[in-house]
Amino acid sequence: MFARRVMVVGTGYVGLTTGACLASLGHEVVCADIDEAKVERLRRGVVDIVEPGLAELVSEQTSAGRLSFVVGAGVALGSFEDGRAAEVLFLCVPTPMGAGGVADLRAVESVIEEVGAELAPGTVVVNKSTVPVGTAARTAELLDWTRSAAEPDRVSRSDVAVVSNPEFLREGSAVKDFLGPDRIVVGSDNQDAAERVAALYARLGAPTVLTDAASAELMKYAANCFLAMKLSYVNAMAELCERVGADIGDVTEGIGYDRRIGQAFLSPGPGWGGSCLPKDTHALLQVADSADFEFRLLRATIDTNTRQRQRIVDKVRLAVTGKRTGSLSRVRLALLGLTFKAGTDDLRDSPALAIAALLRQAGAELVGFDPAFVDGKDGAAPPTEIEGVALAADAVSAAQGAEAVLVLTEWPMFRTLDWSVIASAMKRPIVVDTRNVVDPATLRRAGLTAVGLGRRGEG
Ligand code: UGA
């Protein structure tokens, strides 16, 4: 395997994972960020992101001399051993969705402005962020119009190739996903550059899809939107199960044995959230809109998800008041889990918080508990509230005086809580488990009424 000199610009969740993992594959990696304090922390092995194995990998690869951190892309360029040039530049800077579904490429632009003219001929610039179709082409255009600081005239960089190499990392298992990928996707109109990027991952032995840039860019959306569709389908099916007296667990197990469907990603829940699926479903709708294509299936996927939140609120209302139209005014509710899924402290687009907002609108009083916020960060005290939900130190305190406990994320610890202690702390013994994670028999033994999603006998 050829060890390559790789520069990664941006040390967020994607950039840092990419840098540390590529170093672990034997490449010489220099990561650049504009945040000096962050670079300083990374040099000391302090990783701010909650991601299993990442901090260890960063320390290990830094000590092995394969991974280093610098402030600024320009500095990174001159930081390789023996003053040699970077061969591959990964752009892992934010590319937020701007107006009309066009990615805001200001961060990419500023990196290119800084180093575009200085890149060695033959360098491959790789776009790893999730970006609308056409971004690789726009990046190539930017590169081709870059100007050197010394030389105000346009410096054409048609000798630098642009490649799209989307990531498929899940929060909470990013390192594992990077080092054990289902596939590697590399898209470029420059075949040679695409093959060089694919070769970076050769040791992983994953199936590799070599394609054009637009297909690679679309593939990322296609994957996330398909996953979202799978979940909306399961959530709708769970509702149907309730109406016809079937059981969603049995139904998904049964269909999952069909290898064309698969068992994974079939758990019903309070709706999908996080920083990727909601953003990417909307972005693909925009892509479709601008291509004059009405993507009804995707629209229905999103609508089903929005509706799921209200459906959970309706379930709580019915369980607590016994009526579909009962009032939740001043009803105290305990929310277990606020993050968008277990294993992360990420609250972005969290279904739990969306449901909390609806419950608050309905007049409920909320107390939450989430194991991700038991300890404060950097020695600070833990937060006392999150988006208007007061935080308790543990599940029992959250449940004190509550008329129902809602399980909103699938933290494993919720399965093994002492539910009889929780039951005795509550005003009324109701548990609405929106993830179907706590064994209903355990809840019933503790004297609690268990309400899940799509479960037989609960509808
Ligand atoms: C997602 C994709 O799974 C990754 O492949 C992709 O790389 C990533 O987005 C990204 O674009 O960067 P992530 O957002 O970390 O990863 O979260 P997932 O594990 O996919 O979960 C998404 C949502 O679906 C969560 O709210 C989760 O609770 C929910 N979910 C997931 C369910 O409700 N049921 C399931 O069976 C699985």
TrEMBL record:
Pathway: Nucleotide-sugar biosynthesis; UDP-alpha-D-glucuronate biosynthesis; UDP-alpha-D-glucuronate from UDP-alpha-D-glucose: step 1/1. Residues 334-440 form the UDP-glucose/GDP-mannose dehydrogenase C-terminal domain. The keyword Cell division does not apply. Keywords: NAD, Oxidoreductase. The keyword Secreted does not apply. Belongs to the UDP-glucose/GDP-mannose dehydrogenase family. This is UDP-glucose 6-dehydrogenase. It comes from Actinomycetospora aurantiaca.
